[in-house]
């Protein structure tokens, strides 16, 4: 039986978390002089910004939990999902000793967060269809392998990882399995957060940065068992989600009914780009995508990247990533931005550029 306490670092099990003024007094009072705030007011327009925010974001979690179909006790909010990635590594990986495992090419922050925490990242390559091959795990998992990160839909390849592979790993790996679903809203697939009850070692990451259009706000979600969430709460900075972020997110959630329309429009843009780019001679391959971006293989990624820059179009050059030789990653833009990209690449073809 999985028990998160057997994975959590001994120093974290033993430590006492910071106890904030808001932790120590939770009732109603007429005078609050317990947190060294400025009781005269605020230079910010919103006068309530003189107070520290709710460290556990209760109002926000109740709303998100309702929309996502999870109990608020199964929800952690981070300063972007990047914060959750870092905290998960810190929670269970002993610096200089433990390992995490990823399947590449994939999102770069797993590597950065592992390096920052002096944790070894073992990298297994995805196959030619950018899928996980379970046989490649043979001999790669050790007693000090604490987390497997699976990004689905994967960045930068755009595809969903086969659910059978994810399920196999969840059933057979004794550590944490983190399924990063930053792009799940663009995919025709159910979130793994629906299966938390089945898999006590599962952590699902999602974010407000993509479909919700709130990258600047910095708000990420981790869904997991209440036991795992409690540990993340224990080690997080006390006020990691600002009041501004909480208010903006609560406001955006009121318009949640507009989300499907926005996603449908982005997915239509993806469909247009998929079809149009296939007709462009310098584009050799358009990989299938379940996300809001496409990975395309071109005749010469470096030259075409520079050429597009000259046209005022910035794409992401992924040519140096594993199995991504001559690949560019392009986000789905507005209709006119999508057309501008296609036209720029077509013009390049007419110049017989290769
Ligand atoms: C797969 C993946 N996970 C997480 C993130 C980070 O999301 P956030 O903005 O919530 O930190 C990104 C951002 O590009 C991403 O591609």
Automatic annotation (TrEMBL):
A molecular function GO annotation: histidinol-phosphate transaminase activity
EC number(s) stated in the UniProt entry for this protein: 2.6.1.9
UniProt key word Amino-acid biosynthesis: yes
Catalytic activity from the UniProt record: L-histidinol phosphate + 2-oxoglutarate = 3-(imidazol-4-yl)-2-oxopropyl phosphate + L-glutamate
Residues covered by the Aminotransferase class I/classII large domain: 39-345
Quaternary structure annotation from Swiss-Prot or TrEMBL: Homodimer.
Official protein name in the record: Histidinol-phosphate aminotransferase
Source organism of this protein record: Adhaeribacter aerolatus
Gene of this entry: hisC_1
